[in-house]
Design brief:
Blueprint lengths: L1 E3 L2 E3 L9 E10 L4 E5 L2 H13 L4 E4 L11 E5 L10 E5 L3 E5 L2 H18 L2 E9 L5 E7 L8 H13 L4 E6 L9 H4 L7 H13 L3 E6 L6 H4 L2 H4 L8 E2 L5 E2 L10 H14 L7 E3 L14 H7 L1 H16 L5 E5 L17 E6 L7 H11 L4 E3 L12 H18 L3 E6 L13 H12 L6 H13 L8 H8 L14 H7 L11 H19 L7 H30 L7 H25 L5 H8 L1 H6 L9
Parallel strand pairs: 4-5, 4-6, 6-8, 10-11, 10-19, 11-12, 15-16, 16-17, 17-18, 18-19
Antiparallel strand pairs: 1-2, 3-9, 7-8, 7-9, 13-14
Helix pairs in contact: 1-2, 3-5, 8-10, 9-10, 11-12, 12-13, 13-14, 14-15, 15-17, 16-18, 17-18, 18-19
């Protein structure tokens, strides 16, 4: 804590710099001064940002100008900034930002933007020296579980992530790209088009973000394989018994035993990959649960499941290598057959993923480090299957992944934001995970969570945290689940809402459920106060949070029903009708909010999943549509 003009203050930046020295006095951004830079794009972007903040600066393209009070000079100088992507920011009577390279210069400007957002025109004089700990700092967004963001929404997310110094984004795809000859697969989902990928790729490059294609090519192919045209490619066309119990009623994985599977992968990658300027691709290949129980059973019995998986993975690798230099793949299956890791091509990049706080990242990182392969660590935002997130789990999971990734030499971090079971969570709940990952992958150190949440309010939600502690309240919502019993990969009230017939799996302590319900209602009341007709942007954030809170309250009500009546079908009709009325209001709000930022395709599929409880009430216990 330092004093400026007699006032105590903290500096809130994401990520927080490695070195920050606050000096006496303040710098005043005054209109009619100059931004000097050889980089026209970065210089003019700063001028435009200042204009939006009500500060009028002019741009001049000079390499070594004479600076006067209030001027800003930004330039590349690797001789005085030795670290790749690093920068130095000097704020005295004028501002100087020097970057090791253009990317470092860009990041220095992003830090200046955050300072202006916090302090306005009068900024403490200071010195910052900074550079990243991981060369690759990525975020993965699931666009295949119903919710496909509009292009403007993706651009907004890219803008914010680039300010947080994230330099890689992957959009997880199964069926949500408009492949020319496969309209029946994507026609109901408002997919990304060829032109949109090219436009978004260019937009990312302008912000020093690498848009890496991410197309699953082995498991998670149900959206394709349910159609008659592709069903012959399926390992188990009629579904399979899952390892965790119960039956998955649809085809899931491509079968290595079907020769046309390889040709299919080649066809889709040949069309998709040339649209991306990135020299990398993520081909997925995770969770092939049905491998060996269908058409490849004989092969697996003869050669072993690990060998059959590895051989098909290599076929996919060879297809992808026609287009890209490096091939990423999820490492979960090969980790079950570690004897094959040594045979992986040395330019393959395993992606180590695991989303619980105690995931064995140290063990997994050590496994790949011993092989000499380059690898990423891939934690998650812990938002899916929750309604309101598991913020505490996200923080510990990300920290666990990144600390061990740093210890064992991982080359990157890719924090994932999945959309299982309808992608019900709205965007505000993802920003804690996105931003915490950005914080730690840039500067691997302990993070003060209270200070971090205030920085999130200032730089993501763009509000004063003392007046509108949005991030703090989202975090509090994300820890209410701790008063209930533990459920992996989600919250108890989410699972009870979707699968009420599994009441034998739930520890239904009525007093605990009521306590959590009161906590959520109290937080709802606090957040409701922030809604303002004068600030539509803030009000929309509030509406999104309130809608997810209302879903959580419905889930808690289901838990109360199960605690009292043991079965949804035993709930008295008058109580059930009241529940249905509340449900319909929440769904109506969900539909309205969805359409503001996301495409219409997938909305009805999401609502169908969320409406399962109504079907269970009528006695229909079938599972969800994938």
């Amino acid at each position: 804590m330092r004093k400026v003009n007699g006032y105590d203050f903290e500096i809130y930046l994401i990520p927080f710099p490695k070195k920050l020295e606050v000096k006496d006095g303040t710098f005043l951004l005054s209109s009619n001064r100059w931004v000097f830079s050889e980089s026209v794009d970065i210089g003019t972007s700063l001028v435009n940002f200042l204009e939006k903040e009500g500060i009028s600066y002019r741009f001049g393209r000079y390499k070594s100008p004479n600076l006067y009070y209030g001027d800003i000079f930004i330039g590349v100088n690797p001789y005085v900034v030795p670290h790749k992507e690093g920068y130095k920011l000097f704020m005295d009577d004028y501002i100087t930002i020097l970057g090791h390279d253009e990317r470092g210069l860009f990041y220095g400007v992003q830090t200046l933007k955050q300072l202006i957002r916090q302090f306005g025109k009068k900024i403490p004089k200071l010195f910052i020296e900074d550079y990243p700990d991981f060369p690759n700092r990525g975020i993965m967004i699931d666009i295949s579980r119903d919710r496909v963001p509009k292009l403007d929404t993706l651009k907004y997310i890219i803008d914010k992530l680039s300010e947080l110094k994230i330099n890689q984004v992957q959009l997880y795809m199964e069926h949500t790209f408009a492949y020319k000859e496969h309209e029946e697969v994507w026609k109901d989902y408002s997919p990304l088009t060829h032109e949109e990928i090219i436009e978004l790729d260019k937009y990312c490059k302008q912000r020093y973000v690498e848009l890496v294609p991410n197309q699953n090519t082995f498991g998670h192919m149900s959206k394709w394989l349910v159609h008659e045209k592709y069903k012959h490619l399926a390992e188990s066309p009629e579904g399979y018994e899952t390892p965790w119990g119960g039956r998955y009623e649809y085809p899931f994985s491509l079968s290595p035993a079907v020769p046309e599977s390889e040709k299919f992968v080649e066809e889709i990658l040949d069309e998709l990959l040339p649209l991306f300027s990135s020299e990398q691709v993520n081909v997925g290949c995770d969770e092939t649960f049905d491998l060996g129980v269908g058409k490849s059973k004989e092969l697996c019995e003869k050669y072993g499941k690990g060998k059959v998986y590895f051989d098909f993975l290599m076929k996919i690798y060879n297809i992808a290598k026609k287009h890209k230099k490096s091939v990423m793949f999820w490492g979960d299956i090969i980790e079950n057959h570690p004897e094959f890791i040594k045979y992986l091509p040395k330019d393959m990049i395993p992606m180590i993923w695991g989303y619980e706080a105690d995931h064995p990242y140290e063990e997994k990182c050590g496994l790949y480090a011993d092989s000499g392969l380059s690898f990423y660590v891939c934690p998650g935002t812990s938002t899916w299957n929750t309604f309101v997130g598991r913020a505490d789990n996200a923080v510990v999971n990300i920290k666990n992944a990144i600390f061990n990734g740093k210890k064992y030499g991982a080359i990157g971090v890719l924090t994932t934001d999945w959309g299982d079971n309808g992608h019900v969570q709205h965007l505000p709940f993802s920003w804690i995970g996105f931003s915490y990952s950005a914080e730690m992958s840039w500067n691997v150190s302990e993070v003060n969570i209270d200070k971090f949440l205030k920085a999130l309010d200032i730089n993501i939600f763009e509000v004063n945290p003392d007046e509108y502690p949005i991030a703090e309240l989202i975090y509090k919502l994300g820890i209410v689940h701790n008063k209930l019993f533990y459920t992996p990969n989600g919250t108890p009230f989410f699972y009870a809402f979707l699968y009420p017939e599994r009441n034998g799996n739930y520890k239904l302590e009525l007093e605990k459920i009521k306590e959590v319900e009161n906590d959520v209602l109290s937080l709802r009341k606090e957040i409701q106060k922030f809604r303002s007709d004068e600030d539509s942007k803030l009000s929309f954030v509030v509406d999104q949070i309130l809608n997810n809170i209302d879903f959580a309250l419905l889930g808690l009500k289901v838990m109360k029903f199960l605690s009292i009546y043991k079965d949804i079908q035993a709930v008295p009709e008058n109580e059930w009708m009241e529940f249905e009325d509340e449900f319909n209001k929440v769904i109506e709000s969900y539909r309205r909010i969805w359409l503001v930022q996301n495409r219409p395709g997938g909305l009805e599929q999401s609502i169908y999943k969320l409406s399962r409880i109504l079907r269970v009430r009528r006695g229909d216990l079938r599972g969800l549509i994938f």
